[in-house]
Amino acid sequence: MSASRPHLNSNRRAVMAFTLMAGLLILVGFAQSWSVAMVIFNLGLISAVMALGINIQWGYAGLFNVGTMGFAALGGVAAVLVSKPPVPEAWAAGGADLGIALLIAGGTLAAVIIAYRRIPKGPMRTIALVVIFVAGYTVFRPFFDPAVAAIEAVNPASTGYLGGLGLPIILSWVVGGLFAAGAAWVVGKIALGLRADYLAIATLGIAEIIIAIIKNEDWLTRGVKNVAGLPRPVPYEVDLQQNLTFIRVVEWLHSDTLAALATDARMARLDSFIVESSSIFVKLCYAGLFSVVLLIILTLSVRALNSPWGRMMRAIRDNEVAASAMGKNVTKRHLQVFVLGSAVVGIAGAMLTTLDGQLTPGTYNPLRFTFLIWVMVIVGGSGNNVGAVLGGFLIWFLWVEAEPVGVWLITNGTAWMDAASPIRAHLMESAPHMRIFTMGVILLLVIRFHPHGILPEVVKREDDK
Amino acid sequence: MDTDTINAIVLFSNFILVPGMTYGAQLALGALGITLVFGVLRFANFAHGDMMAFGTMIVVMITWWFQSLGITIAPLPTALLALPLAIVISMSVTLLNDRMIFRYYRKKRSSPSTFVIASTGVMFVFNGIVRFIIGPDDQRFTDGERFIIKAREFKKMTGLDEGLSIKVSQGLTIVIAIILVAALFWFLQRTRTGKAMRAFSDNEDLALLSGIDPERVVAITWIITAALATIAGTLYGLDKSFKPFTYFQLLLPMFASAIVGGIGNPVGAIVGGFVIAFSEVIITYAYKKFLIYAVPPGWAPDGLMQLLSTDYKFAVSFMILVLVLLIRPTGIFKGKVI
Fold first, then answer.
1. Which of residues 101-130 of B touch A (CB under 8 A)?
2. Which of the given ranges, B72-76, B99-103, B238-242, has the highest pLDDT on average?
């Protein structure tokens, strides 16, 4: 693998890379604002968790999952279902019928699976499956349709859905992981036997199906009407600005600046300090929570990769036939790693929706939620957990900063043109799209000239010790 | 046949047959490109949708240029006139792309996953270029006559309650698709180069032993793919509208068509295109009106009689894909033979 880069060097490399990354964020803090730097940092944390999830699947086991978007969205659904208060009127209006409908759906599915297993292959089985499915669907619709109509009619402007459990939103991070794991189990059962690029296409499609369901099943999460105002796990800025202790701390932090001003100016200045600090404080709280999650998952991932289990996974990745000849159950291990990785993505998805404070199904786009995560893993170094984390931060940083840099480049690059030139106006308008192009170029350059990424996979050999 | 039956047939043709045929032909042309690349280069090209968007963008821009010069071919859309030049441009870009990106991995004999990852890189690049040049919004470039038959004229002509309308873009799509498919099959079956391509797809080593130049086969595959993609994209754009993101989304049904038919198999791609298109239309159509005509009076149902809401259109193709992968992973026709 990386014979030219001995193992001892890799730690220094990682420290250097992360120091540079921190330097870039600090630069943003000074050049733009600390608030912008914190926003990038927070989303970088979430991206790093998602990249870890994909790295578990791709880096450990060579599974090509491009369904990240779907699993992240399931995490988002969990955030809504856990944190929003239930809507009793909606439950009263359609809860019972909906429950029956879902029981019928589950029963039909179970019957289909049993029939598939029990009846030997042939036309009889096909006929039986079709009959069960059609019968199930016919019974399902008369319960489902009125239930959905009744639920969606309950105060459609603000609710029109069943609501959630009204529990602390932080629980949804676990639930989001479980949702994604459950979905991944089903997907894995169906698709994991496929060749690498078939699996990619299948997962891409399944992610689209998940998004389509979230967009259209209004009774569940209001669909494209969005769910806004999710409760937060951290304080609100408005409350902080009223909090005496917080005001005192801010006053104390800026006492030098404030002391030099006259009373009126001082009060105005203090107010602006409080507003700014409250926003940064909230972001720091999120950063703390996300960092804890990232560190837990990273530690577990690193330990798993270095354990006998991790060695087995890599053995399967590098030679399935040999591993299976050694008595390893390749199918089971693939399913296991697929479920684990997707669960991590689901956790990240729930964290993202928590940070946004709203679920907006219309914004889930495969370029941003699937392929960008892949760029992170590959640029960071597939197979290396620390590399995936670095990739998460770096690529998210570039994704965000490509826009202002693009605008800056074009403003200066076209300065010689007439200010009213339509070409210049068009270029200015197009500048934000530069980032998609940039990501493609980065990905292509990395796989061509540095295919193991910034922090390549560390292969421990006996003679390294 | 009584009037009700004829009305039912017309209704069916207007809302299912004609749109299904058109969309199916568009998907088939796109899926052919995917299947050819899979057969010869042996990877799933994720950049296909965005290559289609790129080719169509060139057509749109040349069309605008012609329109500004006053060159039109009414009643046909000017875009047809722009097509040949646009095809040449997108062929060159595709060949350049192969030379800069994919050839390296071919020489290295990289795994299919590496090719797929490279193709996602290409996808990003094309997507970025298209958004940069023409922007992410809807673009109109249709002109000329819009309808072959208008619903109202049809009603007047036949005295029926239901109208049948056929757009020029729909007629064109079907005619052009038939010509292209015939030409492609003639090429694959009858010409030396076509036979070389099939041989290469069938058994690479054997083909190499017989003195077939692999680079030439690959180049021709890309040329055909670029032409098909540009034409398919233009036809889709004329029929609906040109929006870069829609083309990215078309990737999914096109993949589904190629796989459902049997990937690597051109006949499969065509059949798959129609299977996917008709399933999307049939499953999301509301049959209420159709049944009112088709069943005896009094039997007509109350509901919309729609199996799935129209919002699930794109998801339908994937449900079929998943089913096919489960039941018959090689597709309807055994895949992986050109």
1. 101, 104, 111-118, 120-129
2. B99-103
Sign of CA dihedral A277, A280, A286, A290: negative
pLDDT single digits (tens) A349-396: 999 999 999 999 989 988 889 999 999 999 998 889 999 999 999 999
pLDDT-based confidence at A333, cuts 50/70/90? very high
Question: CB of A190 within 8 Å of any CB in chain B?
Answer: yes
8 Å CB contact between A176 and A78: yes
Q: Taking the domains of chain B in order of start, what are their residue ranges?
A: 3-327
- ipTM reported for the complex surpasses 0.85: yes
How far apart are the C-alpha atoms of A102 and A88, rounded to whole Å? 19
What is the chain A residue with the closest CA to B128? A437
User: What is the CATH architecture of B3-327?
Assistant: Orthogonal Bundle (1.10)
| A194 and A335 Cβ atoms separated by less than 8 Å | no
The residue of chain A with its CA nearest to that of B133 is A430
User: What is chain A's Cα-based Rg?
Assistant: 26
What pLDDT score was predicted for residue A465? 42
Domain-by-domain residue ranges, chain A?
Answer: 7-86+163-236+274-459, 87-162
Q: How far is CA A448 from the centre of its chain?
A: 27
In this predicted model, which residue has the larger pLDDT, A445 or A243? A445
Which of chain B's residues have a Cβ under 8 Å away from the Cβ of A439?
124, 128
Which pLDDT score, from 0 to 100, does residue B324 have? Answer: 81
How far, rounded to the nearest angstrom, does the alpha carbon of residue A47 sit from its chain's CA centroid? 6
Chain centroid, CA A184 distance in Å = 15
CATH of A7-86+163-236+274-459, one of 1.10.3470, 1.20.1630, 3.40.390, 1.20.58: 1.10.3470
Distant-in-sequence, close-in-space partners of B204: CB < 8 Å, separation ≥ 6: B214
Instruction: Say which range, A343-352, A424-433, B20-29, has the weakest mean pLDDT.
Output: A424-433
